[in-house]
Write a structure and sequence with these properties.
alpha+beta, Jelly Rolls, 3 helices
Length: 159
Amino acid sequence: MTDVESRNASEREFVLGDELRVRILTTAAETEGRHDLCDCYQPAGKMTPLHLHTVYEERHWVREGSMTVWVGEERRVLRSGDFNLIPRHVPHAVRSGPHGCRALLVTSPAGFAELIARSGTPAHRAGRETTFDVELFQRVTEELGDVVLDPPGTLPGQV
């Protein structure tokens, strides 16, 4: 890997507190907005808030570990090699398994990578004291057409 490639790779790595680590592999600018692609790691037992996307659909392909995904009223347990689609406008939440989860995440049209780049902390600047800026995340997520329905731990059907 050249110095330029290495620099570009480090500029594409982000963290959201201790909840999520994301490496942006493909951006909207690189696909004319058709999709983006991220390599995501969520530590053991971490859970997203119940939310939905109004602009893009979300696809997961689990590389390592496992995750439980609540999509509408359905609960899906995904393991290494499993694939999952979450359509637009469907409330969902994701919890990583007991050993964490590493998954490729594709959104189409593109959206998630921008959310991460704008609201996450660049990984090279992150440390033990890195906190999750909830207000910034909420502002960016609303701007991109995402709707946070309830805090982590709330499942579809409980709203």
